[in-house]
Amino acid sequence: MDKYIMRFSKTGRAVYISHLDLMRTITRAFLRAECRLKYSEGFNPHPNISIALPLSVGCESVCEIMDFKMLEDMPCDEIKSRLSTQMPEGIEVLEVYEAERKVKEIKWLCVSGVFEYDERDAAAMAEKLNEFYSADSVVITKKTKRGVGESDIRPAIKEISFEWLDSDVRMQAVISAQEPTLNPELIADALRQLAPDIAPDFAKFKRLEIFDENMEPFR
Amino acid sequence: MDKRLERILPKVQKPARYTGGEYNQITKNKDEVELRLAFCFPDTYEIGMSNLGMGILYSTMNELPYVWCERVYAPWGDMYEQMKQNGVALYALESGDPISEHDVLAFSIGYEMAYSTVLDMMDMAGIPIHSADREDLLPLVIAGGTAALNPEPMADFIDIFLLGEGEEMNNELLALLRTAKVEGWPKQAFLEKASQIGGVYVPSFYKPIYNDDFTINHFDVHPGAPEKVTKRIIADMNAVHFPLSPIVPSTEVVHDRVNLELFRGCVRGCRFCQAGHVYRPIRAKSPELLAEQGKALLKNTGCQDITLLSLSSSDYRCLSELCDDLLGYCEPRSIGLSLPSLRADNFSMDIMHRIQKTRKSGLTFAPEAGSQRLRDAINKNVTEEDLLHTCRLAFEGGWNTIKLYFMLGLPTETDEDILGIAELANQVLHTWRLYAKNKNRGVRITVSTSCFVPKPHSPFQWEQQVTMEEYIRKVHLLRDNIKAKNVVYNWHDPQTSYIEATLSRGDRRMGSVIENVWRAGGRLEAWSDYFSFDRWMKAFDDAGVDPTFYAHRLRDKDEVMPWDNVDVGVRRAHLWHEREQAYKSELSPDCRKQCSACGAAKLLKGGKCDG
Ligand code: SF4
After folding, report:
1. Whether A141 contacts A193, CB under 8 Å
2. Residue-range definition of the domain harbouring residue B339
3. Are residues B301 and A18, on separate chains, in Cβ contact within 8 Å?
4. Is B206's pLDDT higher than 80?
């Protein structure tokens, strides 16, 4: 068997582990589990693992994907059960399976968000948010390497809706995962730029599912 | 997670260091324990998580079923600001609960520059910094670590100091505290009882009485408290509890590796060295146990590096055999084995060759002084011949980076000794020219100097530190005499060393200076980002305390030292004898050649060192 995929979640305190630190943390978990990863050749060998769609710090996810290669074949269930006792709090192995599809085929991401309003009436906000995002384009300014640029984030949002629940506004959206990649934080940032009166005091996001271009869950 | 924290964390650098939740952290049900202890390290997470002692004691204290010991580190500046702005009090990593909910704050103080951070952490926890202002038994503030061996500068702030190695003593104290809490003892009654435990120093029981010139006349000792408190040691290193499943940080720390402690203590007796005296006598673990523990640690952490720690690894009797055993495990798994603190001798090079087959990182040696005379005076038993021969083997073996560490301002030092440093560096370069295997790769020799800080409990505890001006003069002299372009010279600034010199041999009057520094915003002062010399000078001024009194004054032979109530085992007469030997530039034998009856043997049951 050549390539495996591990699907895992990253929630709770683990959301503050950065992408790079996560790679190291997982490599160590493999070592402890005595699941021997295949390493790259060369002067400074490193394990052949890659986590698709790096998650930003603070964002939760129940649909992370990592592909890896093993030195020797091992049944997927065995890998999963060995790894599951080796993870820090908040990282949970959901599934290990043989990789058949390319990560490139991931196209859409389903994300939820919680928008918190400290002093304003959150109930009134949901409607305004829906209205704001019913527009055809939402052009924001972004800092890039080459300076400040403009970009329309709306085409990268396939579906979006807001509703009021438990004193916060809940968001649910399907956004483009790759080409272009939309960081869900930009959904709140756009409000800060363009509609500060309905921008949340704090927003946090959670990835729920990844899809291919036909909106089939990617496995 | 605390809502406020959830908002702060995305804004700060490396937030994972503020969350806990790492693999192998110890969590307990707070309703099922009787004592909650906040184990505070007065520096950053990255430094604290690399500290072996803290890892050991975290585990031994948690062995007590009625205690939950959690970790607390000092937040970096950005996090500190955010916490202040949002009213978030200092919290423990495992539970996220504020420290004010804990029964005990235990500080591990390894170095003096952490003192202001200790005060800051108490304040961030919302606890009064002065011991006298904490009238109730709880929270109790205790402290240990090397810096505690002169407890006086922090005496006003800490309720109890624990002197020496903590594995047994900490748990004895916690057992007593458990009873005191259940029975509702007043603080004073608890302190009196606690002072009967070996190694426990209750600073409020020792009141310094000063002479007119601010030297100490004597201490008024509280009735019932011991005249002198003797540090504790673990007699049998093979039997002591040692955690085999340490916490694996989820973010990068300074020393991200398995630390294996070969032995405690040192047989050498370098006269400038505090560690070499205060950790005596030498006590080693067996090679079989070490190999077993090393492998278990690697397996349980998934670390890809292991370091053999001790003050002077070459002095471990079974080093060769242990290295072979570990290499047998490490090599097939591409695990790196490293050995710092090797001496410059044949035997060590042989081992280096074996362990660094592929990765030839730089080699570091610390001759400490440039001339043989001065090396003899400080009892650093290394000859130029040893050093050059070792360098030859290194160059032949393919190494091309050598670092050499020296101190300037050592007692008896002359300009000639300083020029000797430049000469020695030239000799090393010459050796490279003669013997390097592959000269195309070039060579890099780094000479570093720092300003000598006289330390309590060492033979140089009576000495004066050179002034900063004099240190700089010495630096310039050396710099002007290092001419080869392959030799790089770095020097540490003398300001920190000067402050360190005032703190390390400070008395109780230093407490107000430390407090002033903290009130003026001083914290994390071991970091140049945060150290401010001017703030210290102003703090001295405001307290009416003269820093030169501590740093630049030669003490009389019989002067009462602020740390005289602390007995580390080594007799004062031995230290003085060693000092006299220094002034005659005479070597003393190491413990293995001949015991010089320093006094430390009395700490062992049989009264005899393993040597
Ligand atoms: S008593 Fe002797 S052998 Fe033991 S530490 Fe002192 S000098 Fe060394």
Report:
1. yes
2. 258-492+569-600
3. no
4. yes
Which of B489, B316, B324 minimizes the C-alpha distance to B406? B489
Ligand 1: distance of its center to the CA of B584 in Å?
22
Assign a CATH topology to domain A106-211. Alpha-Beta Plaits (3.30.70)
Examine residue B245 and state whether it is found in any structural domain, yes or no.
no
Domain boundaries, chain A: 4-100, 106-211
Structure-token pair, residue B245: 């499943």
Interatomic CA distance for residues A68 and A70, integer angstroms: 7
Average pLDDT across chain B, whole number: 95
Task: State the pLDDT at residue B440.
Answer: 86
CA of B569 to the centre of ligand 1 (A): 10
- Shared domain for B207 and B89, answered yes or no, is yes
**Rounded to the nearest whole angstrom, what is the distance from the C-alpha of residue B597 to the centroid of ligand 1?**
5
pTM: 0.95
Q: Tell me if the bond preceding B246 is cis, omega within 30° of 0.
A: no
Strands A60-69 and A147-152: unpaired
Residue B42, classified by CB atoms within 10 Å of its CB into exposed (0-12), middle (13-18) or buried (19+), is buried
The structural domain count of chain B equals: 2
Q: CA angle, B156 as apex, B217 and B234 as ends, to 5°?
A: 85
Residue B162: its pLDDT value, please?
Answer: 98
Residue B393: its pLDDT value, please?
86
User: For B500-549, how does the pLDDT look when each residue is reduced to its tens digit (9 = 90+)?
Assistant: 999 999 999 999 999 999 999 999 999 999 999 999 999 999 999 999 99
- Tens of pLDDT, residue by residue over A102-137, are 999 999 999 999 999 999 999 899 999 999 999 999
When comparing pLDDT for B332 and B406, which is higher?
B406
Dump strand ranges (E) for B242-303: 258-261, 263-264, 283-284
| Same structural domain, B262 and B226 | no
Q: Which class is domain A4-100?
A: alpha beta
In A, which residues are within 8 Å of B15 by CB distance? 16, 57-58
**In CATH, what number is assigned to the domain containing residue B314?**
3.80.30.20
| pLDDT (0 to 100) of residue B359 | 55
Q: How close is the nearest chain B Cα to the Cα of A77, in Å?
A: 21
Contact: A13, B334; criterion CB under 8 Å: no
* Model pLDDT for residues B535-592, shown as the tens digit of each residue: 999 999 999 999 999 999 999 999 999 999 999 999 999 999 999 999 999 999 999 9
Mutate to test the interface with B, among A34, A89, A115, A204 (most CBs of B within 10 A): A89
* DSSP-based three-state secondary structure for B68: strand
Residue at a domain's end among B214, B230, B246: B230
B575 in the same domain as B465: yes
* B188 domain residue, yes or no: yes
> Do residue B170 and residue B273 come from a single domain?
no
The reply to whether B209 falls in a domain is yes
Instruction: State the distance from the centre of ligand 1 to the C-alpha of B281, rounded, in angstroms.
Output: 6
Give domain status of residue B500, yes or no.
Answer: no
Distance of alpha carbon B29 from alpha carbon B27, whole angstroms: 7
**Is residue B22 located within the same domain as residue B143?**
yes
ipTM: 0.94
Q: What is the pLDDT of residues B290-337, one digit of tens each?
A: 999 999 999 999 999 999 999 888 889 999 899 999 999 998 888 988
Give first-to-last CA distance, chain B, whole Å.
Answer: 52
Same domain, B291 and B179: no
Q: What is the atom index within ligand 1 of the atom nearest the CA of B595?
A: 2
Q: Tell me the two tokens of residue A4.
A: 């495996």
CB contact under 8 A, B23 and A87: yes
Characterize the bridge pairing of strands A3-10 and A60-69: antiparallel
Q: Same domain for B277 and B226?
A: no
Nearest CB neighbour to B248, from listed A22, A28, A204? A28
Q: With beta carbons less than 8 A apart as the criterion, state whether B267 and B343 touch.
A: no
Q: Is the CB of B375 under 6 A from ligand 1?
A: no
Which atom from ligand 1 is nearest to the alpha carbon of B596? 7
Ligand 1 pocket, B595 CB below 6 A? yes
Which of A10, A11, A13 should we substitute to test contact with B (largest number of B Cβ atoms within 10 Å)? A13
